[in-house]
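So, could you explain the following?
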Amino acid sequence: QVQLVESGGGLVQAGDSLRLSCVASGRTFSSYAVGWFRQAPGKAREFVGVISGNARTTFYSDSVKGRFTISRDNSKNTVYLQMNSLKPEDTAVYYCAAGIAISARRSEYDYWGQGTQVTVSS
């Protein structure tokens, strides 16, 4: 069992940066890939990016590639989502999720956090 808790959301202006954290419980955290997803009001939850358990592999959606970076510190059971050059369209609730596969599919993830709100004003 893995429990995930996101933090770091807030209200920022367009062009600003923000770093989200996802802290996990469980001793086998390094075995899991961790994905970040987001959900804007009235829209489906969408894939943002994912990092493998050993941090060697990452990939991102086209909408955030080059602006967002995912990293992890397994000694702290923490995954980070660094978001730069934020745009109003990045406004959403951001979720982290853990699963065995490195995937963009929501169905591949077994554990989810409760989400943290990110609001980007223009």
